[in-house]
Amino acid sequence: MSFPNVIYGKYGDEKVAQSTAIGGLPYGQILIHPRGYVFRHGRAGTAALLPGQVCVAGSIIPDHGCGTADQLLANTAAIGSTSIGVTAGGTTAIAANYYDGGELFVRDDTGEGHVYAINTNNSTATGSTATISLEKTDGLVVALGASATVGLRRNPYREVITRPTGSAQVGPTVGVPVLAVSAGFYTWLQQRGIGPGLVAATAIVIGQPVVASTATAGALAPIVASTTNTVNDLQVLGHVIAVSASTEYALINWNIP
């Protein structure tokens, strides 16, 4: 089954939180609000989400090809293949369906530099081989050689969490819910347009670019010029269009990549 890349909603369609996928839609589906605001279909992880609080993708598994070590060795596979065998290295098993809707990327050797859409996967213990099934229209464009290593990444909208405190970020920013969302529930995450934003202790002013607060989970702070800023401190998430006091909610013109 295929889906349109974009669907167009009416006022209020973005204010949904439910235990099943909204309309049976896939993770990351785009919803356009009547005023042009952009939302993505996502699902809360093991903790509830709150409106106006910045959310990020859940943590990655370094052993599954997302660390500095090449832990996933791929079986050889011909051009056009959509069934890829990968041997799990490290100490972390691969759970069934864990990477549904995610990406397989070739890290090194023959076929390196290419990314493919995962449909589903089976389970395997460490040291054994799992089968990664790609979407049927996204077969290999370059054959995998005997020494090719790959990485697996979950769909970033599948298990989203409130951005934690600190400069380290477990995953990329994915959006902001516009209502309370129970753990494991599906909702729409705002990425562009006017919406709520929790203000941290530092005052913000109209027109100012804002970044994720490192002191208050899910909150926003003004961007500050500093030689000690981290990359995350400098990722502008939007601009202020109506201010509020500390721990209250302002209006933000969100522009989350």
Please give the domain count: 2
Roughly how much helix do the residues carry, as a percent range? under 10%
Low-confidence stretches: none
Q: Based on CA inertia axes, which overall geometry fits?
A: elongated
Ends apart, CA distance between termini: 27 Å
The gyration radius over C-alpha positions equals: 20 Å
Give the averaged pLDDT, no decimals: 92
Taking the sheet with the most strands, its summary is: 12 strands, mixed
Describe the structure.
This protein is mostly beta strands and 257 residues long. It folds into two domains: 6-58 and 158-255, no CATH class; 62-153, Elongation Factor Tu (Ef-tu), domain 3 (Beta Barrel). It is built from no helices and 18 strands. The chain has strands at 6-8, 17-18, 30-32, 38-43, 55-56, 72-74, 83-88, 103-108, 115-121, 129-134, 149-153, 161-162, 173-177, 186-198, 209-212, 220-222, 238-242, 249-255. The strands form two sheets. Strands 1, 2, 3, 4, 5, 12, 13, 14, 15, 16, 17 and 18 form a twelve-stranded mixed sheet that branches. The chain has a six-stranded antiparallel sheet with strand order 6-7-10-9-8-11, with no helix packed on it. A hairpin with a 6-residue loop joins strand 17 and strand 18. It is elongated, with a radius of gyration of 20 Å. The two termini are 27 Å apart. The model has no long low-confidence stretch (mean pLDDT 92).
